[in-house]
Amino acid sequence: EPPHDFVCPITTEVMSDPVMAADGHSYERSAIERWLATKSTSPLTGGELERSILIPNHTLRRQIGEWHEAHAGR
Questions:
Q1: What's the whole-model pTM score?
Q2: Where are the alpha helices (DSSP H) in 1-74?
Q3: Are 27 and 21 within 8 A, CB to CB?
Q4: Is there a contact between 17 and 61 (Cβ–Cβ < 8 Å)?
Q5: Where does the U-box domain start and stop, copy by copy (predicted)?
């Protein structure tokens, strides 16, 4: 079972390209880009997102990669 923080709240799958949105939460890049193409709200809080800028979450990406390596073949 992957750590909760590794799972995209939109896709409910482990992220491979995590980005942080203006709401402070991380999402899979392709999923949040699709969301923001038609909405200007946070998928988690429903609150208005003032900006649609997505910041790569390098730390989370590294942690997910390490988790994958530690659990490979299990």
A1: 0.91
A2: 29-38, 58-70
A3: yes
A4: yes
A5: 1-74
Residue keyed to tokens 């969301």: 35
- How far apart, in whole angstroms, are the C-alpha atoms of residue 59 and residue 18? 9
Residue 45's domain comprises 4-72
Among 53, 49, 71, 63, residue whose Cα is nearest residue 4: 63
CATH code: domain of residue 61:
3.30.40.10
- Give the residue from 34, 24, 31 showing the smallest Cα distance to 8: 31
Question: What domain count does the chain have?
Answer: 1
Q: Write down the pLDDT at residue 74.
A: 66
d(CA 25, CA 4): 12
